[in-house]
């Protein structure tokens, strides 16, 4: 049938069908666009989480290097150039790690033992109340609010 043979009602019906089809395509396109936007957001979050976990592993391992610097600084004569050089390098490393969210766990003699931040490695006689932290043996670290290495401490015992 040619166009001139169709009556106005047939044209109206065909037009409505085209409108309906157009609306279905448009809605499908909108859903696909929203799905794609959500996918991009989820992928960005997954990538960010992957990067954060990768950094966390590396930074956690570098705390061992900081501990080694502490041990080295304790045995090298504080007036020697080697001590000063080691101190500068340690400070530089600490500054770098701080930029990535690493902070030291502060330990004070007499504070209550906290198993989420401390690891007890022994007991010593001390003037502190029994079970309280008497001394720090090894530094602990927190990375972005999460304990990556608990502070190793000795607890006070009754004399």
From TrEMBL:
- GO BP: protein folding
Q: Which GO terms describe its molecular function?
A: adenyl-nucleotide exchange factor activity; protein homodimerization activity; protein-folding chaperone binding; unfolded protein binding
Where does this protein have coiled-coil stretches?
A: none
Query: Which lineage ranks, top first, belong to the organism behind this chain?
Result: Bacteria, Candidatus Joergenseniibacteriota
Where found? Cytoplasm
Q: Which SUPFAM superfamilies match?
A: Coiled-coil domain of nucleotide exchange factor GrpE, Head domain of nucleotide exchange factor GrpE
| Keyword annotations from UniProtKB, A to Z | Chaperone, Cytoplasm, Stress response
Name of the protein in question: Protein GrpE
Q: Does the keyword Endoplasmic reticulum apply?
A: no
Would you tell me the Gene Ontology cellular component terms? Answer: cytoplasm
* Highest taxon, organism lineage: Bacteria
- From which residue to which does the signal peptide run? none
Record's subunit section: Homodimer.
Q: What does this protein do?
A: Participates actively in the response to hyperosmotic and heat shock by preventing the aggregation of stress-denatured proteins, in association with DnaK and GrpE. It is the nucleotide exchange factor for DnaK and may function as a thermosensor. Unfolded proteins bind initially to DnaJ; upon interaction with the DnaJ-bound protein, DnaK hydrolyzes its bound ATP, resulting in the formation of a stable complex. GrpE releases ADP from DnaK; ATP binding to DnaK triggers the release of the substrate protein, thus completing the reaction cycle.
Q: Which family does it belong to?
A: Belongs to the GrpE family.
User: What are the transmembrane regions?
Assistant: none
UniProt keyword Cell membrane, yes or no: no
């Amino acid at each position: 049938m040619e166009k001139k043979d169709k009556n106005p009602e047939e044209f109206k019906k065909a037009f409505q069908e085209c409108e309906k089809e157009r609306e279905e395509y448009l809605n499908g396109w909108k859903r696909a666009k929203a799905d794609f936007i959500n996918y991009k957001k989820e992928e960005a979050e997954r990538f960010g989480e992957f990067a954060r976990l990768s950094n966390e592993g590396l930074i956690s391992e570098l705390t061992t290097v900081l501990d080694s610097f502490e041990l080295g600084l304790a045995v090298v004569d504080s007036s020697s150039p080697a001590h000063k050089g080691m101190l500068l390098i340690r400070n530089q490393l600490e500054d770098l790690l701080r930029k990535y969210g690493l902070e030291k766990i502060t330990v004070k003699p007499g504070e209550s033992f906290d198993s989420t931040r401390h690891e007890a490695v022994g007991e010593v006689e001390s003037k502190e109340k029994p079970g309280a932290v008497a001394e720090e043996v090894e530094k602990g670290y927190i990375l972005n609010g999460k304990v990556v290495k608990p502070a190793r401490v000795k607890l006070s015992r009754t004399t």
